[in-house]
Amino acid sequence: MKAIAVFPGTKEVQVVEHPEPQIERPEQVKLRLLEVGVCGTDRHICAQAFGSPPAHSDYLILGHEALAEVVAVGDAVTHLQPGDLVVPEVRRPCADPSCRACQAEHQDFCQTGTYTERGIKELHGYMAEYVVDDARFLHPAPKELRQVAVLTEPLTIAEKALDQALQIQRRLPWQTSAATSTEPGRGLSAVVLGAGPIGLLGAMLFVIQGFDTYVYSRAQAPNEKADIVTAIGATYISSETTPIEELTQQVKQIDLVYEAMDAAPMAIEIIQHLNRNGIFIFTSGTNPRQPYGIDSAATLHNLTPLNQVIIGTVNAGPATFTSAIEHLGVFQQRWPSILPNLITERHPMQRASEVLLKKPGGIKHVVTIA
User: Which domain holds residue 262?
Assistant: First the structure.
């Protein structure tokens, strides 16, 4: 079968002939891949910033944001059948029996760091015509989401971030009442840093949760991302025309910051303006080759007396994949003409290297497998 692979030694991205996998265990499912999203992680892997192929392989099949169709199931699989659409998880648990996180199927909190990840770390990814996977890592997607379900994995980043924030804010009893259970963000402001796919999907999630949502991104309006932000009922603010001091005056109180732009200086500066009891969520990893110094005294001056929290999160677990698929359905109903616009272009496998080796314009680019 054909697959898109990167060769770490040469940084080459090629269409390769790879052995077609077959079901070998009763709990396995064979998938025909439909499409795979491309993100910054894939480009970093192609540039050899991180990522590693499986043992004894010269290449790594890329892709972790996938949508697939079931073509065959093992004898022990009862909840899936051929023709079903599924979204697969990325991270797989480590083998250490002392890792309580992985033993509890929360491999996104793996304590040993020896987990594996499809298309990223020691496991081939989904940019292939076929894949065989364990059924427990596959999440059914409704057929009516066929055109947008590939956005599930990037949405899981926001899903996990929000879930962690809400769990932390249980420390505030007035925010856990029945009145806030359906819209926990009611009366609070969320600032999303960045208007890429992870930022825009996060903004959609915060809007439906009741947050007064702002998206702070570089490009000046009007532009396609600003149009989407406005259409979902959020506010778009350009960092080119509105410095952070003016941003904080416009927002007035910043209760939640969701960072999705990999810009350490800006993020650190905004921390200084976080509201009392506020939460700052990092989802991007900064480049260690470009260190950025911070004024730790100034940061702690606010962090401690104002009861603020800073957390980092990225890879999501099983529950967040389920909630992401559910919320994509909500987005589709609420913004039927907006959600599909997050996908800028779909590319055939033969052109995959064009979007993997350079960053094209637009929002989300997808490689079509079948």
Answer: 154-312
Write the CB contacts of 340 (distance below 8 Å, at least 6 apart in sequence). Answer: 147, 148
Helix (H, G, I), strand (E, B) or coil at 50: coil
CB-CB contact of 262 with 49 (8 Å)? no
Cβ–Cβ < 8 Å for 77, 26: yes
Pairing of strands 28-38, 2-7: unpaired
Residue found under tokens 């990037």: 154
Tokens encoding 24: 């070998």
Tell me, what CATH number does 174's domain have? 3.40.50.720
* Cα 35 from Cα 141, distance rounded (Å): 14
- Is the pTM of the predicted complex or chain greater than 0.90? yes
Task: Look up residue 52 and give its DSSP letter.
Answer: B
pLDDT digits (tens, 9 = 90+) for 295-347: 777 677 788 889 999 999 989 999 999 999 999 999 999 999 999 999 999 99
Under 8 Å between Cβ of 149 and 67: yes
